[in-house]
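Input/output pair, single chain:
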Amino acid sequence: MSNVLIGIIGVILFIGLALAGALFLGPRFQQSKNSSNAASVTMSLDQMAHAAAMRRVTMGSAGESGRGQYLVDEGYLKAIPPFILDPTGGFYNFRDADGAYAGPAAFALAGLDASNKTHMAACREMNRTLKVGDAEGNPPSATTPPGSAGCFLTSGSWGGLPDGLPIVFRRI
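Output:
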């Protein structure tokens, strides 16, 4: 009888420790996922920006703004890096300093979905790591990208994009 009682107490103790561990470590695992997403987006944008910079060195120009397929066609990239957070619905491209497609490429960027919690968590984590925005990494509203890399919410009409659209960017 006492062996059964000790076994039941052991199982209850094990379940209690498992629940306590999940409650304690749960936010840390989520933070790790956000950091991973932010790092993958940052690295994708870095690859595109470095390829455009390499083109600038060899050809004298980073190329015209637009989709960036020319970097693949000219051999500067094997393929456009995947937009990790949303490979089907997100956009990635190059824009000039005014946000238009008319001039030389100045920014590699990708658009995020403001209603997607994963996108916004990655945006905040990217900003927190790069020290853009406030201490929590909330994206600032800006008419042009603030700084050399990060995430911001469009304000005004930067390149025809609607207000409040989260954009992750990297200056070329």
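Residues 2-59 form the longest helix (58 residues). The chain has a mean pLDDT of 81.
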